[in-house]
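User: Can you help me understand a structure? I only have the sequence.
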Amino acid sequence: MNKYMFLGAGLCVAMALTSCGSSESAYKKAYLKAQQRTEQQTTVTPAVTTETPTVTPVVTTPVTETRIVDNNDATPVRQENVELQSGAPLKAYSVVIGSFTLKANAEGEVQRLIQKGYDARLVYTPQNNMYRVVASSFDTKPEAAQSRDQLAQQYQGAWLLYAK
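Assistant: Let's start by predicting it. Here is the structure, written out as tokens:
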């Protein structure tokens, strides 16, 4: 009798150990899918801060740059459809200092800007699923360009947004 119980218990243990394992093909599929997604996207350098960043790397698809020309001004401006998430309404031209895939990371950057005295806003771009951190917004392009030039000293890669 003990012999059959021991054999049955051994059989149950063997089945339990072999049936619960993940197959290598499942891991390979997940790896290939992630690799494909990475190839379709490019990395954007996050905004530079004095604190140690605790955010994940920002990944985005390339945005086509549109030049909007006001009189003799040829300052490059990106034109995107955006949805205001927080802050005061946007004016015609805005200075974007960072783009994030995670809303929480973008909200943290907005709070840091507000603490520094900026009228920061958070906007969402549904076309590429990105949260943009807007440091300032202006009615005229020259004002926005001047603000961008000042902010670019602290936030490399700052750019102008013309909200559709």
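Now, to help you interpret it: Strands lie at 42-44, 58-60, 66-67, 76-80, 83-86, 93-100, 121-125, 130-138, 159-163. The mean pLDDT is 80. Let me know which part you'd like to focus on.
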